[in-house]
């Protein structure tokens, strides 16, 4: 009943009945309106401050205009969001011959399949967290698809094999020493890239889990959800002994390289 939505549960009062002008309310589907009212009425304050004296949700008049109205923003680069596409004729099928001078007029048609907002002033906290989670997952998938860690490991192995072959070859000691130094510098740089990429991927994974926990907790506190974002986590089995041996092997190889470069400097 409307009495449960009006302030102090008074009988509803409609301004139209007493001759006051009321602007046109925005067009909202009945389902969305009922969902919003139920969420407000389930709050501890029973949606106080959200309903008017007529028992309806307080709204502003329809904000859309038939004419384009854009305020002048001083200091903004007008070409910042401009993407230039060179015009070209698509064929005579889209051209219309002007009867006055015989010039062909072409009609430009733009079709927008969908619009995706990365942020909006009307976003709730759940919308912000959901968008942030989607962006983090997109970055993680991009790093995972690039397979940078595997590439760095393969390049590191190739450099280490080159160092071993150079040590066993019978080349000029001076040239071999210079080549070894270049290989060691490349190995050091590649190992640093491997560590940075692994740390970035691990930190991004932790941030994704943290954002997902915040989003789930917010939905539980609200009692409802406004977004459809879900995070699916796949667990892959691994052998802890094998991983530990690989880490020990990497540490041992790095120590050997440092000792070799130090002895080279001493000599």
Which descriptors would you attach to this protein?
267 residues, Helix Hairpins, 5 helices, 2 strands, elongated
Produce the secondary structure layout.
Layout lengths: L29 H12 L53 E3 L6 E3 L18 H22 L1 H21 L4 H50 L17 H27 L1
Antiparallel strand pairs: 1-2
Helix pairs in contact: 2-4, 3-4
Descriptive account of the structure:
With 267 residues, the chain is mainly α. A two-stranded antiparallel ribbon has the order 1-2. The protein contains five helices and two strands; from the N terminus they run αββαααα. Among the domains are: 1-62, no CATH class; 125-232, Orthogonal Bundle (Helix Hairpins). Helix content is 49%, strand content 2%. The chain starts with 29 loop residues before the first helix and ends with a helix. It is elongated, with a radius of gyration of 33 Å. Strand 1 and strand 2 form a beta hairpin.
Write a brief structural summary.
Among the domains are: 1-62, no CATH class; 125-232, Helix Hairpins, CATH 1.10.287. It is 49% helix and 2% strand. The chain is built from 5 helices and 2 strands, in the order αββαααα.
